[in-house]
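REQUEST
  id: r-88c1
  op: predict_structure
  target: Floricaula/leafy-like transcription factor
  payload:
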Amino acid sequence: MDPEGFTSGLFRWNPTRAMVEQQQPPPVPPPPHQQQPPATPQTAAFGMRLGGLEGLFGPYGVRFYTAAKIAELGFTASTLVGMKDEELEDMMNSLSHIFRWELLVGERYGVKAAVRAERRRLQEEEEEE
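RESPONSE
  id: r-88c1
  status: 200
  body:
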């Protein structure tokens, strides 16, 4: 069996189709501008990307990766603020066990300090009203 004859029978080159000019597709209109939801005090303080965790932990030395893993477990800034200190410690231990990755000592203190500061800020806002 001739291998050249086999391939030339299956694939035929049509030179007339190769010469056809390629037409430019019509330009795609830009997507409509999406409006951002209005910033409330909570969304401004907590941020929006990781359930507010990057805004909560930002000034406290907690790595973005740590905040992302906490968000992956389903925690948001508002749920962390509602937790007790023992529950926060359990959450951080679970984070270490589930992802097989250790939190830095400063991160543990940073998480606790950020949550305490946010609780204090919310409590002061409630007292003012």
